[in-house]
Amino acid sequence: MSDTIFGKIARGEVPADVVYEDDEVLVFRDLGPQAPVHLLVIPRKPIATLNDAQPADAQLLGKLLLAAAKAAALTGIADSGYRTVLNCNAAGGQEVFHLHLHVLGGRPMQWPPG
Ligand code: DGP
Question: Which tens digit of pLDDT belongs to each residue from 54-81?
Answer without folding.
Answer: 999 999 999 999 999 999 999 999 999 9
